[in-house]
Amino acid sequence: MSLTLRTISREQHLAYIGSLPSASHMQVPAWGDVKAEWRSESLGWFDRSGQLVGVGLVLYRQLPRLKRYLAYLPEGPVINWYAPNLEEWLRPMLAHLKQQGAFSVKMGPPVVIRRWSAAAIKAGIQNPEVKRLRDVEATVIEPRAFEVSDRLRRMGWQQGEDEGAGFGDVQPRYVFQIPLRGRSLDEVHKGFNQLWRRNIKKAEKAGVEVVRGGYDDLPVWQQLYEVTAERDKFRPRPLMYFERMWRTLNDEDPDRMRLYFAVHEGEAVAAATMLIVGGHVWYSYGASANHKREVRPSNAMQWRMLQDAYALQADVYDLRGIGDSLEDTDHLFGLIQFKVGTGGEAAEYLGEWDFPLNKLLHKALDIYMSRR
C-alpha cells in the first residue's frame, strides 16, 4: 500500500470522521478551535487510488521567542494502527511536521492494550498485596497492541510519561468505560453495585431532577465547577473556555456537546458536560456543590446521562480518566471507587509517545516541563 499525506479541508476531515463508527472527540476539526492557544491543521492519508484512508488533527504550540513548535495529536491520529506497514503511515507525517517547523511530535495512539472488569478491580482493592491496577491480572489483553508498541519503538518513538508532559494537555492512560453495545438498559442498571442502585433510588425519593442545560446556563455550571476545583485542589478552566467549547463543537455538530444539571428544590447541585462522536459518548467534566451531597445528585445525573447515551445507540459510555493506584490513601482512589461501582471496565491505552525531531530542543522542553 503506497500512502501519501497532505493537508486537507475541515469538510474532508469531518466527513471522514462521520464515516467511522467513532473517533476521539479530540480528533474532530472543531477541537482545534477549542484549543485556541494552539494552531491546528487537518492531515489526510490517501491510498494509491486517491481514497482518503486516515485523518489526524495536529495542534501546534510555539516555543517562546522561537518559530519552532511542539506538534501534538491528542488521542490520534485516526489511522489503521494495526497495519503491518505502520511506518509507511507515520514516516510521511513526521516529514510533514518537520517541514512545518515542529521540533518534537507527541501523539496518543487510540489503542487499548488491557481491560479489567469491575469484579477484578474490586478483588484487587480488597487484596492488601495489590497496590496498582497493573498488579491485577487483566480480564482482556490485546496482543496486537504490544505489536504496535514494538513497532513504534523500532521507529524511534519514545514512550511518554504517564503524567505531566505536553504543556499540561497530557491525556489519561487509564480510563473507565461502560460497554452498552448488545446490552439492555436493565442489564446496565443491574451491573451497578448495591450502593449505586441505592443512591439512584435515594436521589429519586429525595426529588432530585436531572435536566439538560444550554449555552446560557454555562455560568451556573461554572459556579459549581469552581466550587469543585477549590474542594479538589485543581486549577479550574475559565468560563470562556466552556463557552468556546460549546460554540465550536455544536457549530460543527448540533449534538456534539451537552450540559446536564442535577436539581434539588430548585437549586442546581451537580452538573456535567457530555461529548458525542458517533457511537462513543464521554462524560467530560463534572462538578458538584459542597452541600446536599446526601441526596446523591451525581449518581442520579450519571444514570440519566447513561440512559441518554443508550437512547443515542452508543456503543460505549466513557467516564474518562482514573488513576492506577488501588490504595485508599491515594488522592485519586475515591474516583476509581466511584466509577467501579457502575460495573463497567477499566481500559489501559498505549499512552502518549514522543518523537524528537530536534533532540536539543526536545531535551530543553523536557527540562522546562520537569521544573514547572
Automatic annotation (TrEMBL):
Looking at the keywords, is Oxidoreductase present? no
A GO MF annotation of the entry reads: aminoacyltransferase activity
Cite the entry's keywords alphabetically.
Answer: Acyltransferase, Cell shape, Cell wall biogenesis/degradation, Peptidoglycan synthesis, Transferase
Its domain of life? Bacteria
InterPro entries listed in its UniProt record? Acyl_CoA_acyltransferase, FEMABX, PG_Glycine_Bridge_Synth
Share an example GO biological-process annotation for this protein.
peptidoglycan biosynthetic process
User: Which family, according to the similarity comment?
Assistant: Belongs to the FemABX family.
- This protein is called Peptidoglycan bridge formation protein FemAB
